[in-house]
Structure formats: structure tokens, C-alpha cells
UniProtKB/TrEMBL annotation:
<feature type="binding site">
    <location>
        <position position="318"/>
    </location>
    <ligand>
        <name>S-adenosyl-L-methionine</name>
    </ligand>
</feature>
<dbReference type="InterPro" id="IPR030391">
    <property type="entry name" value="MeTrfase_TrmA_CS"/>
</dbReference>
<keyword id="KW-0949">S-adenosyl-L-methionine</keyword>
<dbReference type="GO" id="GO:0009451">
    <property type="term" value="P:RNA modification"/>
</dbReference>
<dbReference type="InterPro" id="IPR025795">
    <property type="entry name" value="tRNA_(uracil-5-)_MeTrfase"/>
</dbReference>
<dbReference type="GO" id="GO:0030697">
    <property type="term" value="F:tRNA (uracil(54)-C5)-methyltransferase activity, S-adenosyl methionine-dependent"/>
</dbReference>
<feature type="binding site">
    <location>
        <position position="391"/>
    </location>
    <ligand>
        <name>S-adenosyl-L-methionine</name>
    </ligand>
</feature>
<protein>
    <submittedName>
        <fullName>S-adenosyl-L-methionine-dependent methyltransferase</fullName>
    </submittedName>
</protein>
<dbReference type="InterPro" id="IPR010280">
    <property type="entry name" value="U5_MeTrfase_fam"/>
</dbReference>
<feature type="binding site">
    <location>
        <position position="285"/>
    </location>
    <ligand>
        <name>S-adenosyl-L-methionine</name>
    </ligand>
</feature>
<feature type="binding site">
    <location>
        <position position="340"/>
    </location>
    <ligand>
        <name>S-adenosyl-L-methionine</name>
    </ligand>
</feature>
<keyword id="KW-0489">Methyltransferase</keyword>
<dbReference type="InterPro" id="IPR030390">
    <property type="entry name" value="MeTrfase_TrmA_AS"/>
</dbReference>
<feature type="active site" description="Nucleophile">
    <location>
        <position position="418"/>
    </location>
</feature>
<dbReference type="InterPro" id="IPR012340">
    <property type="entry name" value="NA-bd_OB-fold"/>
</dbReference>
<dbReference type="GO" id="GO:0032259">
    <property type="term" value="P:methylation"/>
</dbReference>
<keyword id="KW-0808">Transferase</keyword>
Amino acid sequence: MRRDIDKLWASLDVTPTVPADGTAPLELFETVEVRIVALSSTGEGIGLLGSFSSKEDTQDEARKGWLIVIPHVLHGEWVQGRVYRNHRGYSYADLDKVLVPAPDRQKAPCTYFGQCGGCQLQHMTYEDQLAFKKLSVEAAFEAQATILGPVVVEKVWASPDQYGYRTKITPHFDRPKSTTQCPDIGFLQQGRRRVLDVEECIIARPVLNAGLTQSRAYVASHLDTYKRGSTILLREDHQIIQPGEEGNDTDSPKEISRVVTNHKEIVRESFGAYQFEFPAGSFFQNNASILPDLTGYVRDHVQGGEEGRKMRFLVDAYCGSGLFSITCASKSFERVLGVEISEDSVKYARRNVELNQHLLPGVPCTYQVGDAETIFQGLDVPGPDTSLIIDPPRKGCSNSFLDQMIQFGPRRVAYVSCNVVTQARDLAYLEEQCRALHVPGWKLEHLCGFDLFPWTAHVEGVALLVRQEE
């Protein structure tokens, strides 16, 4: 949020009047009216107090330039909010009401929207959500423009399913207050650390909502066993049984879905012709409907082709249970190598090679346990003939990893990120280091987003790089 605030102040050429002791000019629970002049990268609206845009307080110099961060609003709207937290130069407020709505505001499809902290953008049309997320990717890379130069975000790929897409949800509840009253079971309230009671989530798979109903009944009948609050795991086990396989005596593929609540139980996720197994509590992408587009986009790049140069080797640096390395393996590769710090994930990556063997063109796929930062040590494949897939956690890559990547010099790189800010930071670091070392860097050939979580502010960034010639 601070980055968004500073950027807005700079664009408006406004500096707020902040007392030396940092005291805010607004009282907690004070009601304010503002016009929304920008949206933050996380989807909140930002309104500006003072003579620049507010209907009120135009003579109050103490409030001039002070910003109000308020959720569930659109650019240009006049809104009323109630302040609940103050920071240096800006305050957070709950939305009380929209005084003058934007013409493209839509009615939220979920009855819990505005209270539940899970979704941020249900007041936007889906087309506007994609446009907002494209701007979010652009803003992250604009922050590194002095190093990376101008960057073009080509598009944000839409999710085929906008409702009922989540294959995993984790509702919570606090410690029951008595053995006769069931606590609220659901998700954290917007801007609060309190649980909102949610009976159905419209972005969760139908089987998970059925599981939520069952879990609520179970908790209600076992209140005396909970000495503290708890989190419920609800994960879909989705299998496709082909004709002739056990359990399917028809001529068509048969889909079976059930809900799993045990973290250690093995589940299967299916999309296209691929199937993956992993423990229910482990990480796997939660929107299977967009995985064919996402993995296909990465596959087309790492195989090579645009410059007519096929790659011989594929390295997956944060391989998990093998999603990208398996879906991107092709007969053009002589070898596919995945590295993952979790021994359990490596075990299931190997299992998933067996599960998808009929789709793998005889390419040896090997997996090893190890830290991504040491992946290049002892790697016996030449960088110029290698494609590298990077899909790190939100914190991005360490400088140590990126330094080793420069030394290894993979020809093609696909950087998939759940945090476009750290993604842009990492690419800027690569460029700076390559310049300092006077070695060829990577050209950013393509940059786009993928909407893995419709109705939320999250966007997955995919950057496709090609090593420049000497």
C-alpha cells in the first residue's frame, strides 16, 4: 500500500500535512466523504481529502493531501466511509455507502461481499477486473522502469470458470463459547481478525460447499472436543476415469469428485489429459480450469521455436509435485530435471511421471530434493541448450539463486510468479548484475497475467525471457 500511496502523491504533486508526532487529522470512527481518485494494486480505492477533490473540509489545511483507503469502490465514485485505522499520511476506512456510483458498477453476485475478506472485486464487471489486473502488472514493472525500461503487458488471460473454480478452501472458527452454541464458521471479515459465518462460497467447487455443510454439522455435534479455534481443510479429489479403466465400463471418460478433509490423504487433480496426485494439505494450483492455458503458454516458450532453436534440456527450479516439468516435457528435450526442497513433493513428482507416462514422449524426467539456491551446483547440462522454469513463493528468488542463474546462463527462462512486485524486482536485479558483470542478459520477450482467482485482486505474472547473444 505504501508504494501505491507514494505513487499517487507524486502524480498529484501533493504532500500531506503530517504533524511531527505523526498524529492523523482524523479521529477513529469519524465519517468522511471522498471522491475515489485511484485504485491500489490490491483493489482498494484511494480518496483524497482537502481542496483537491473532496466536497467538504476544503478550508482545513491539516487535511489537505490526506488519503483515505477504502474497499469495494470504483474510480471516480463519491463515497462515504468510516475511519478505523490511521497511518502516516493516510487512513483506512470502511465503506458506509456509495453516494454517486460509477456507471459500470455492478451488483455483487455474493451476499457476503463487503463483509468477507476473501474477494475484493465483485463490484467490478469481469472485463474490468481483467483490465485492473493488467494495470497491476504494469505498475509493478513501472516501479523498475529505470532498470528494465518500458515494458509491455500483453494481456491478462481470463479464467474459463469465474465461479465454482476453487478446488481448496480453508474456513476457520474460533473456540466455541459453550457446548450448545456453534461458533461462526467461515472466513476472516474484511479488514478484521474476526470470523464471518459463511454457509456457501460462490467461488468454491460445488463439492466443497457440500463438504462445508457437512463440516458445520460435525463441528456443531462435537463442540465439547474443541479447546481452541481450528481451520477446516476442504479439498476436491477430482479424477477422470478413462473408458475401460476400473470403475468405468462406458465409452466416455467418467469424472468423479469428492471432498477430502484429511491433510495427509492423497487427492488427484485432473485437467485436460493430465492427472496429478499429492497430499490434500500440500500446495497445488487452486483453479484447474485455467491450467491448460497457463501450462501451454509456458510450454510453447520453453520448447523454443520463435528463433528456430529447439532446447535440449529443461530444468524446473521450484518443481513442487511436477506440474510444469511434466506438462512442458516434449520429445525435443533429451532430459527434464526438477528440484524441490520438499522431499514429500519430490516423491509425488516421481509418482506423477508414472501417472502421466502415456503423455510423456519417452523423455527421462528426474527429480531431486534440494534447495533451489543450490540447483545449479553440479548441474551437468549446458546453459545455452537449457530452458529454465522458475515458480518461486511470494517472496521471489534470492540474490544467491539469481547470481547462480547468471553463471549458468540458460537460454530460455519462464518466470511464473504469484507476486508481480517481487517478480519485477528479480528481473531488475538480473539486468543490473548482467550489466555490472558485462555479460549477456535476458530479453523480456513476453509479459502477461493469468487470472487464477477471479473476483479477487490477485494476478499471476508470467515473464518469458530469452538470453541475448554475446
